[in-house]
Design a protein that fits this description.
596 residues; alpha/beta; six-stranded mixed sheet; five-stranded mixed sheet; 15 helices; rod-shaped
C-alpha cells in the first residue's frame, strides 16, 4: 500500500470515529456544536499517520465532545496560500514548516511531539547517511558527486535535515549529489537501493536504521553510518546530523481564544499510556529556523531565485549604496582629473610668468649694466675731456710760438710752415672733439615723467632673480615724483646690491627698505647691518674711483650721485651706530601743478 492510500484510509477512519464520538457524547440533541478545522501539511511518513496523527485526533474527539472536527489537507507546495483559502484553526506540520509560518500567517505553537525515550523535544529528529560496508566513502563530505536514495524530498528527517548537514559543511545541497532517487515510501526502500548498488548512499530518517535491523529487513553490519553520532552519547539511535524538533501542532490567529485554550489543555493532557509519544510545549526552534534559512525554504525561498527582479528585491539597498559609491568614485576621479588639469594649467602659466619675469629681469639687468657702463664712460669722458684740454691748448700755444720764433729768425721755410699749419689744424680738431665730449657729458638732458617711487622700487627689486629672506620691505606708500624712472631704478638697485654685498659676512644679516615723506620731498632709504665703515671710506662714498670693495672701481655710487642730481635730487649716507650703512635718495614730491 502506498503512502497516499494509507493517508486516505486514516482520514476516513478518523472522520467516522469523530462522528460516532459526537453522537455518543452527552451533548444535548439539537445543540449547535462548534467546528474545529485541523489542517495537515502532507510531508510525513505513513507511520506518522498510523501511530501519531490518528490516535491524537481520536483522543481529541473524545476529550472535546462539544466540538465538531473537520479535517483538511494543506498542499506543501503552497502552505500560506492553502491556509488563506481553507482557514484551518489548527495546523499539524513538521517543525520546518511551522517556523516558516511564524511570521505569516502568524502560527503559534500549541504542542510538539516528544517520542518515548527522548529527554528533550527540541532534539528529536535526525538523519543518517548510510553506505554499503565495503564502500570507500568515509564521510558525508566524500559523497560529493555521488548518487543518493531518499524516501521523499518533502520529509523533514528523511531529507531536509540531511541537506542542512551538507550546507553546514559549506556545500550547495542542491548540487552536491550527481542524482537523487525518491522511493516515496514504496518498495524497494532506501536501504534496499543502497544494498543493491542502485545508489551510492542513502538517507534514513530517525531510528529507521534500528527498526530495519529489528524487523530483519537489514542485517547488522550490512550498511555503515557516515559521521556516526549518538552511541557515544548513550542515544538509542545512531545519526549523522544534528537533532531537531519533531511534529508541531500550532494554532492560527483567527481561532477563538477559548477554543485554543480547550484544545491546548486537551492535547497536553493526552495520556502516554499505550503510546510511544507525548505532546509537550517546546520553545527552542532557533536551530530549525537556521536550517530553513540555510536551505532557502519558506520566507527564504526567494534566495534561490537568481533573476534580476529577485536580486533587486533582495539586494536593492546594497545595489543603491554600491551605485552611489560608484558614482562618488567616478565623481571623485573626474574632480581630481579636472583639478589636476586646472593646477597643471596654472602651473604652466606660473612657469611661463616666471620665465617672462626672468627674461624681463635679465633685460633689466642688461639695461642697468648698459646704463652703468654708459655712466662710467660719461664720467671717464668728462674726466678725460677735462684733463686733456689743457695739454691740447699748450700744444696749440707751443705750435704758434714756434711759428713766430722761426719766422723771426727767418728760418720759417715753406715746408716748416706747412707742417706747423697741419699741426695747428690737428690741435684745433682735437680741441673740437674734446669740447663735443664735454658738451655731451654735461649738457645731455634727462627724460623725466610723472612716476611713483614705490613702483620704481618694486621694479628695481624685481631685477634680482631672487632675494634672501632677510631683505625686508616696509609698507611702501605711494610716492609721486617727476623723474626718469629707469635712472632712479638704477640707484635703488645699486643701493640694494651694495647692501647685500655688505652683509655677506654677518651671522644674522638684515637689509631693510623704506619710503618716508620728508617735508616737500620723499626719502627712500636702504639700510644694512654690515660691518662698521671707517671714516676714510665713509668720506669718499660717492666719489668716482673710490670703493670699499676689494675689486670695486668706485664708479657705481659716483654715477648714482650724478643721476640723482640730474633728476633734481641728491644722495645722503649715514653710518649706523651698531654697524652698517644707511643710504638714502631724496627726491622732490611731484604735485599736479608742478608737472611741466
Amino acid at each position: 500500500m502506498g503512502a497516499g492510500a494509507v493517508r486516505k484510509a486514516a482520514a476516513a477512519a478518523i472522520s467516522a470515529l469523530a462522528l460516532a464520538c459526537a453522537q455518543a457524547s452527552g451533548a444535548p440533541e439539537g445543540a449547535p456544536a462548534k467546528t474545529i478545522t485541523i489542517g495537515l501539511v502532507d510531508t510525513f511518513s505513513p507511520d506518522f499517520y498510523v501511530h501519531t496523527y490518528s490516535p491524537t485526533l481520536d483522543y481529541l474527539a473524545q476529550a472535546l465532545p462539544r466540538y465538531r472536527f473537520r479535517y483538511t489537507e494543506i498542499d506543501y507546495r503552497d502552505v500560506p496560500g492553502e491556509i488563506a483559502r481553507k482557514k484551518p484553526d489548527f495546523i499539524v506540520s513538521t517543525a520546518s514548516t511551522y517556523v516558516t509560518l511564524l511570521d505569516s500567517p502568524g502560527a503559534h505553537q500549541i504542542a510538539t511531539r516528544r517520542p518515548a525515550g527522548s529527554v528533550d523535544a527540541a532534539h528529536t529528529l535526525a538523519s543518517a547517511f548510510v553506505v554499503p560496508s565495503a564502500s570507500p566513502i568515509r564521510s558525508v563530505a566524500g559523497l560529493r558527486g555521488r548518487s543518493v536514495a531518499i524516501a521523499d524530498s518533502r520529509s523533514f528527517d528523511g531529507w531536509l535535515i540531511a541537506q542542512g548537514e551538507i550546507a553546514r559543511l559549506n556545500y550547495d545541497p542542491n548540487r552536491f549529489f550527481s542524482s537523487v532517487t525518491e522511493t516515496h515510501y514504496g518498495i524497494p526502500g532506501v536501504a534496499e537501493l543502497v544494498t543493491l548498488g542502485a545508489a551510492d548512499a542513502g538517507v534514513l530518517s530517525t531510528c529507521e536504521y534500528e527498526k530495519l535491523i529489528e524487523s530483519g529487513q537489514l542485517r547488522e553490519g550490512e550498511l555503515r553510518i557516515l559521521d556516526e553520532r549518538g552511541k557515544q552519547q548513550g542515544e538509542s539511535c545512531v545519526r549523522s546530523t544534528e537533532r531537531y524538533p519533531d511534529a508541531v501542532i500550532s494554532s492560527l490567529p483567527w481561532c477563538p481564544a477559548e477554543t485554543v485554550s480547550d484544545f491546548t489543555i486537551a492535547l497536553l493532557s493526552m495520556p502516554a499510556k499505550g503510546r510511544d509519544f507525548r505532546w509537550v510545549v517546546e520553545s527552542n526552534f532557533q536551530p530549525t529556523w537556521e536550517l530553513i534559512k540555510a536551505l532557502g525554504l519558506g520566507p527564504f525561498s526567494h534566495m534561490k531565485d537568481m533573476s534580476p527582479q529577485a536580486l533587486w528585491r533582495r539586494y536593492h539597498t546594497e545595489m543603491l549604496l554600491g551605485a552611489a559609491l560608484l558614482l562618488a568614485v567616478i565623481f571623485h576621479l573626474v574632480s581630481v582629473n579636472l583639478l589636476v588639469r586646472r593646477r597643471t594649467r596654472q602651473l604652466s602659466l606660473a612657469v611661463k610668468a616666471t620665465e617672462k619675469l626672468h627674461d624681463e629681469a635679465q633685460k633689466t639687468h642688461m639695461k642697468l649694466a648698459r646704463l652703468e657702463r654708459e655712466s662710467i664712460v660719461s664720467q671717464l669722458s668728462s674726466m678725460f675731456a677735462h684733463e686733456i684740454k689743457q695739454p691740447i691748448m699748450n700744444i696749440s700755444l707751443y705750435a704758434g710760438a714756434l711759428r713766430l720764433y722761426l719766422k723771426k729768425k727767418g728760418e720759417l721755410s715753406e715746408k716748416a710752415l706747412d707742417l706747423l699749419e697741419s699741426l695747428e689744424s690737428e690741435v684745433e680738431r682735437s680741441s673740437e672733439i674734446v669740447e663735443h665730449v664735454r658738451s655731451y657729458a654735461k649738457k645731455r638732458e634727462a627724460r623725466p615723467q610723472a612716476s611713483d617711487l614705490r613702483t620704481i622700487t618694486e621694479a628695481a627689486l624685481r631685477t634680482f632673480s631672487s632675494l634672501p629672506e632677510f631683505v625686508r620691505c616696509d609698507d611702501l606708500p605711494s610716492a609721486p615724483v617727476w623723474v626718469d624712472p629707469f635712472e632712479i631704478q638704477f640707484i635703488v638697485a645699486n643701493f640694494v646690491k651694495n647692501a647685500l654685498s655688505a652683509v655677506q659676512t654677518v651671522k644674522k644679516p638684515e637689509v631693510r627698505i623704506s619710503i618716508r615723506p620728508e617735508g616737500r620731498s620723499w626719502r627712500l632709504t636702504v639700510s644694512d647691518n654690515g660691518p662698521a665703515i671707517s671714516d676714510e671710506v665713509f668720506e669718499n662714498l660717492g666719489t668716482a674711483g673710490t670703493s670699499s670693495k676689494k675689486d670695486g672701481l668706485g664708479f657705481g655710487l659716483a654715477i648714482a650721485v650724478a643721476i640723482a642730481e640730474r633728476n633734481r635730487g641728491h644722495l645722503e649716507f649715514r653710518k649706523r651706530p651698531e654697524g652698517g650703512l644707511q643710504a638714502a635718495l631724496i627726491l622732490k614730491r611731484c604735485d599736479k601743478e608742478e608737472i611741466p
